[in-house]
Amino acid sequence: MDITSILYPVLSVGGLGLVFGAGLGYAGKVFAVEEDPRIGEVQACLPGANCGGCGFPGCGGLASAIVAGTAPVNGCPVGGAAAAAKIAEVMGVAAGETEKMVAHVSCKGTCTNAKSKYEYVGISDCTMASQLASGGAKGCSYGCLGLGSCVKACAFGALQVVDGVAVVDEEKCVACGKCVKACPKHLIVLKPESKKTVVNCSSKDAGKTVIANCSVGCIGCKICEKNCKFDAIHVENNIATIDYSKCKDCGLCAMKCPKNVIFNPRIEAMKAKKAEEEAAAKAAEAAKAAEEAPKAEEPKAE
Amino acid sequence: MSYVLLVLAAIFVNNYVLSQFLGICPFLGVSKKVETAAGMGAAVIFVMTLASAVTYFIYQLILVNLGIEYLYNIAFILVIAALVQLVEMFLKKSSPSLYQALGVYLPLITTNCAVLGVAVTNMQRGYNFLQSVLNGFGGAVGFALAIILFAGVREKIQYNNMPKAFEGFPTALVAAGLMSIAFLGFQGLITL
Questions:
Q1: Rounded Cα distance, A264 and A18, in Å
Q2: Alpha-carbon distances of B113 from A197, B105, B120, rounded to whole Å
Q3: Cα separations in angstroms, A41 against A58, A92, A96, A240, B153
Q4: Do B68 and A33 touch (CB under 8 A)?
Q5: Helical (H) or strand (E) element with A212
Q6: Of A105, A104, A49, whose CA–CA distance to A77 is shortest?
Q7: pLDDT at residue A302 in the model
Q8: Going by DSSP bridges, is the β-strand pair A233-236/A239-242 parallel, antiparallel, or unpaired?
Q9: Longest dimension (CA), chain A
Q10: What is the Cα Rg of chain A in Å?
Q11: Strand positions, DSSP E, chain A
Q12: Coil vs helix vs strand at A41
């Protein structure tokens, strides 16, 4: 075999690469653009997930915007207060307070709680399913379809479909807002992590329709609104919404809600304890009755 | 006269986007605004004309002389990639706003099949140097024309009421198809 048949291609293509490389290296120096060194420093403080949660194209976009002064130093929802403090140091300004937010899926219409109209066997994508004339398989036209479009959108693995409804893992959630955009039913909202009281329904249907489709749907009865001492919960369009700037997390609404739509972990624990006590009392009563029953029967037998 | 016809044929009859379906990615990706479309068109005109000239010499002087014509794909890609890098540096320095507007699509010219398509067409049709450059220039002008016209169409479409399922990209694809049919009318106008 002729060695030149290997040598020529290698040398010519390699040589071309070398010439172009040298040319580009020279051009890089000629056309060098002076960048603000702070852009690189700011970018180093950012998480680098390029999730776009800040509204800029990637972390680089936010970094240039921060340096240009068009974005606040706490513009990154993912990095939160820690990143904001570091960036503020670079920029030489005070970091504003950032409240950590988390995503929340406002629907608890699980397979057992909500009725479905039919069995959906199409492509596993909520947007696809929601564009069908029926708006998806769920009886409630506002409910979570459970096909996991939000799960796919989440870059941090914070979402999971459990029993037909998406659930957020608040530990992993960074509030980038990707799932909020991905959900065709607009079920996912960002709420402050410190506030634990949530409304687990998004149905704008009238009470009768809600009851027909779901056992845990908001019927718009306004009991929560009447009971709230802080004017923080309001029923509009047949759905209760919490104003987190006023909510004090007292859980009164969760306690009074007849459909258990409003959730507060403290009230939930109380309810569970009460139910347990009731069950225990019932069991004790039943045991007592069972104890008494043979005694009552015995004299009869005699 | 034949050179004028060559350019006109490259622009209208053999339009790289609308009749040969090359370079569809930037055609659909950067055609939301007339302004950025014009910038993209200008960048492509520059890269394509230069690529035609450089690839002609590379092919004739190196590949043909050494008898390794089969390497043309690799050699051409190398030339185009280096050229795009050069254009990118140049734009970053001279026109940061255009650089920003083109964004990720500028590096994408590297893999723009229309640019490689022109180089390969020149080689396969055995064009001489002037013909190659003119064909490259004409093809690029055709690309620019198509993308600017298309951006104009898309800007107008935005204000129309669309069925939900047709909003955005689907309409763009339909519009692209209709434009392609319109350009079919040039077919047979010039026979080279």
A1: 67
A2: 55, 13, 10
A3: 15, 12, 19, 45, 42
A4: no
A5: helix A207-213
A6: A49
A7: 46
A8: antiparallel
A9: 118
A10: 30
A11: 101-105, 159-162, 165-168, 188-192, 198-199, 233-236, 239-242, 262-263
A12: helix
Euclidean distance between CA atoms A78 and A174, whole angstroms: 5
Q: How far apart are the C-alpha atoms of B78 and A23, rounded to whole Å?
A: 13
| CB-based contact A176:A155 (threshold 8 Å) | yes
Q: How far apart are the C-alpha atoms of A33 and B44, rounded to whole Å?
A: 22
Name the residue facing B66 among A8, A32, A131 (closest C-beta).
A8
Minimal CA separation from B127 to chain A, in Å: 23
* DSSP 8-state symbol, B62: I
Q: What is the pLDDT of residues A96-125, one digit of tens each?
A: 666 778 899 999 888 888 888 888 888 888
Question: Do residues A211 and A188 lie in contact, with contact meaning Cβ atoms separated by under 8 Å?
Answer: no
Per residue in B63-112, pLDDT (tens digit) is: 888 888 888 888 898 888 888 888 888 888 887 777 776 666 677 777 77
**Integer CA distances (angstroms), B73 to A42, A74, B52, B120, in order:** 41, 49, 13, 8
Does A31 sit within 8 Å of B75, measured CB to CB?
no
Q: Which residue of B has its CA nearest to A128?
A: B165
Q: Could you give the C-alpha distances from A218 to A16, A209, A212, A225, A279, in angstroms and in order?
A: 70, 10, 12, 12, 27
Q: Which residues of A touch B (CB under 8 A)?
A: 8-9, 12-13, 16-17, 20, 23-24, 27-28, 31-33, 57, 131
Yes or no, beta carbons of A9 and B89 under 8 Å apart: no
Contact: B89, A17; criterion CB under 8 Å? no
ipTM over 0.90: no
Residues in chain A within 8 Å Cβ distance of B96: 33
Residues of chain A found within 8 Å of residue B67, distances taken between Cβ atoms: 8
Residues A230 and A202: their CA atoms lie apart, in Å, by 22
DSSP state of B13: I
Q: What share of chain B is helix, strand, coil (3-state, %, to 5)?
A: 80, 0, 20
Select from B68, B103, B165 the Cβ nearest to the Cβ of A9: B68
Closest chain B C-alpha to A262 CA, distance in angstroms: 33
Total count of residues recorded for chain A: 302
pTM of the model: 0.52
Determine contact, residues A31/B90, Cβ cutoff 8 Å.
yes
Q: Cβ neighbours of residue A282 under 8 Å, at least 6 residues apart?
A: none
Question: Which chain A residues contact residue B82 at CB under 8 A?
Answer: 20, 23-24
